[in-house]
Specification:
Strand content of chain A: 25-35%
Largest sheet of chain A: 6 strands, mixed
Shape of chain A: elongated
Low-confidence stretches of chain A: 1-11
Radius of gyration of chain A: 18 Å
Structural class of chain A: alpha+beta
Oligomer: homodimer
Number of strands of chain A: 6
Number of helices of chain A: 4
Distance between the termini of chain A: 11 Å
Strand order of the largest sheet of chain A: 1-2-4-5-6-3
Chain lengths: 169, 169
């Protein structure tokens, strides 16, 4: 388990090969967790686009080549969803997650293209215990997705409700 | 076509039974567009959750009933993706859409549960022509999703790049 004592003051990526159970107390500002990486191919991008975001540059190869990005790019919602899979696996714990209040400031500075591999890092920005319900707190975290060329493709700030560590856990 | 002259100063929902082609000039602050509604069932919620957001309250009916929401709820990313389908159909035009810079402030004040029907409204907050590229502009819009009980389930602010109307269009 990640304890407060082992957390660096500045962002430092912690490899998480095994699943770590985290409670509110473990989300200490400065904790940075490597959430692994994912790749996405053209077939997946088009399938997601057809279902949820059928703009030409997500679903139509010919139109996309003539369009603003010069080719197919992933829907931003596809990228957030694929990111979430990594975050659930490496950063959030089912033992403590009480859902999200929302998201602040998603940015997509670089398109995600077929064949890209994105590494996901989650860094705790702020952790505040609830005044009214001291068995939980609010954790603000910044997610960053960096592609195989070391270019940031997405950043995001998530606001999550997290259960505090129960006695004996 | 929606012209600036026909746009109300305050938010007023415009029904869009037919597809309307919009360019930058048409996204006038105060324009509010009814983007229709969608429903989501338990099978769809679990399928999305298993693929992208496998937290117990999205994928496991028994665990969800004992969990913080008392039952299965949709991943917030599922809700944003289903919203996007409505926005692409009713608010964005393939003729002018140049993608999104990002999103500000998603909030999920009420969970989306199996069987819910969400109505999507998009309201233009701000439209600013690019100084460096006057053939386009940036449009900030607020999306609101209201469920069958008239409760707001999601709000979001999107930041989109939009092409200006070409000569003769």
């Amino acid at each position: 388990m990640q304890s407060a004592e082992s957390v660096a003051d500045t962002a430092e990526v912690t490899e998480t090969s095994e699943r770590i159970i985290r409670y509110f107390e473990d989300y200490v500002p400065g904790l940075a967790v490597d959430c692994g990486s994912f790749s996405v191919n053209e077939e997946q991008i088009i399938a997601f686009g057809e279902q949820y975001d059928p703009q030409p540059f997500h679903v139509d190869r010919d139109a996309a080549e003539k369009g603003p990005f010069g080719g197919i790019i992933a829907s931003g919602w596809h990228t957030t969803s694929l990111m979430m899979r990594q975050v659930v696996k490496h950063f959030i714990s089912p033992e403590s997650s009480l859902g999200a209040a929302g998201i602040d400031e998603i940015r997509w500075p670089r398109p995600v293209r077929p064949g890209d591999t994105l590494r996901v890092t989650a860094t705790v920005l702020e952790a505040r215990r609830s005044q009214s319900k001291p068995d939980r707190g609010i954790v603000r975290s910044r997610m960053e997705l960096v592609n195989q060329d070391a270019v940031t493709a997405m950043t995001m700030t998530a606001i999550n409700f997290v259960r505090a560590r129960p006695a004996g856990a």
